[in-house]
Specification:
The complex is a heterotrimer of chains A (74), B (190) and C (248). With 74 residues, chain A is mainly alpha-helical. Chain A contains 3 helices and no strands. Chain B has one domain. In chain B, 87% of the residues lie in helices and 0% in strands. Classes of the chains: A mainly alpha (74), B mainly alpha (190), C mainly alpha (248).
Chain lengths: 74, 190, 248
Amino acid sequence: MEVEAAKMIGAGLATLGLGGVGIGLGNLFSHFVAGALRNPSAAPKVFPNLLLGAALTEALGIFSLLIGLLVLFG
Amino acid sequence: MRQYMLGLTLAVAAVSPALAEGAEKKGLPQLRFEDFPPQIFWLAVTFVLLLVLLSTLVLPKLQGTIEGRKAKLEGDLSDAVRLKDEAAAAIAAYEKALAAARQRANAIAAEAKAKIEAAAAARKAELEAQLAEEAKAAEARISATKAAALAEVRTIALDASRAITAKVAGIEVDEASAAPAVDAALARNG
Amino acid sequence: MAAGGEAHGPLHQFEITRLVPLDLGGVDISFTNSALWMVIIVAVSTLFFVIATSRAAIVPGRLQSIAELSYEFVAGLLRDNAGKEGMKYFPFVFTIFIFVLMANMLGMVPYSFTVTSHLAVTATMSFIIIIGITVLGIVKHGFGFFHVFLPSGVPMWLAPLLIVIEVISYLTRPVSLSVRLFANMMAGHTTLKVFASFVVGLGVLAGWLPLLFVVALTGLEVLIAFLQAYIFTILTCIYLNDAFHPHH
């Protein structure tokens, strides 16, 4: 059962990568809000870019999540 | 946030035997490769079916509706623009006519004024000439009268000087000898 | 969950069950629950659009408005990201958007099966998209398509490093495209299921709290379902742009 325990620890460690995604998404949205408050008329124009950035950032986090899932269930 | 939650929940699921035993087979269902071929096959079938259905039944109609509306809107808009241009042209023509009329009125007024001024100036010049002529004639008359009067004065002075001389000195002086003295006296006084 | 009284794990909803076993030359093409939901997706979306466009009025009704809105939405995405040449592939991109959106949305119906929560489906779609775009780019530009890997105005000594990085990032495109969609769908549904099992586990007294949470999460999941369809479509458009304009 030691391998099982190591797997769970490994899966937990793999999810740490999501912290970086949290920082990244926070940065993204905080800058969007700050920019939107400075120039509200330009906000709708960059909103698709915001979603795109969020998706690209999130994808990286999901990779680490996937590693965790693979370790746990693979 | 969702990823954190998933990590947590998966850990819970893996730890708690009651939940984990629910899965009939081991591992993620998504990574069971014997399930891939039927999914890929049916994905291809249904996707192509949807593509064909949408692009034959739906998209041409939608596109036609949207483009028809756009064309109608554009037609209406261009009509509106044309009408607006026409109105602007009418206003411009009206203003041009107004300006022309005003200009003509100004021209007529200026012409009348010039004519009147010219007439006045001509009349004035005529009057002045006439007055100058009259003044000249009057001057001539005056100088003639004056010369006559001066001549008269000399005769009177000659006669008087002869009479006075005859009365006072008892000397009869003839006209020719008295004349130089009288002329000298006249020149001295006159 | 708990159909027929028995308890299932949070991953049970992703199980593939063969409804009609079929075989084609040794390849398993069984009609599974996944295939059933794919057919339902096609039926529902076709039915919706056919009904919505049946009365093509100049002033649209509600259904027609939705249909036209989705048309304009995808057309705008494609035009903004891939330019005028991209409009030739509009039916394909529109079908991708409708398929993914319908799969995500129908997956939110209780007891349904989320087609896009399976790697097989998303990976097939994204690999076909990326391979198709690569082939299209090479057909259109020949060797010039490989300018994708070397942005113009880069100093030559940097080129070897940059080409390696660009090639890797190009190769991860299908992976990230498919894994993003599948992992988002799976994560959302698993989370919902786990919280729903807390409702049952905590009973009448404390079960209300996770129930409220499940309700809020369901709203979030509907948003995610739309957002992921949007992301999948916009990334397809952006990658399609590379096939038309490799010199970026």
